[in-house]
Amino acid sequence: MPIRLSLRSLRWFAPLFALALSACAPAPIYKVAPGTLAVLPAQVAQSPEQYGNGQVIWGGSVINVRNFPDHSEVEILAYPLDSSQRPQPNAHAAGRFIAIFPGYVESFNIPGGSLITISGQLNGSRAGMVDQAAYVYPLVSVAQSHVWTAAEMSQGHTDFHFGVGVAAGFR
């Protein structure tokens, strides 16, 4: 006996389906405070004076960790963040920035290629080089940081395939 779904019954299930999908994604790790800048590192690099000492939440892939006597600098290739503030490494890169941590950061804990999200305050910029090209790095004084595990990166991502039927699976 075939199952018949009317338009009315589909309208009833749509909000439940949307709620179920949103329940799968983790919540953002940092609260976005009023005045937090919604700007990419590449935009700040073009005109750092325009953004002053604004607050940012940025993330990306760790390129390098350098330790100094009183602080550590982590160079990060930025990527857009998803709704949970996880970097999206399959998207186009959004510039580079240097995250400045107080004290010592163990490079073993955040090796090159690690995905990280930071929350902090813009603190000027610095001219540098990327290979043979001149580059302006926005500097961020880090208030909070999170290094993502592989399990956290895949949490809440669903596989949906639409075709002759509808199937859903969770990774």
UniProtKB/TrEMBL annotation:
<dbReference type="Pfam" id="PF03843">
    <property type="entry name" value="Slp"/>
</dbReference>
<protein>
    <recommendedName>
        <fullName>Slp family lipoprotein</fullName>
    </recommendedName>
</protein>
<feature type="signal peptide">
    <location>
        <begin position="1"/>
        <end position="20"/>
    </location>
</feature>
<dbReference type="GO" id="GO:0019867">
    <property type="term" value="C:outer membrane"/>
</dbReference>
<dbReference type="InterPro" id="IPR004658">
    <property type="entry name" value="OMP_Slp"/>
</dbReference>
<keyword id="KW-0732">Signal</keyword>
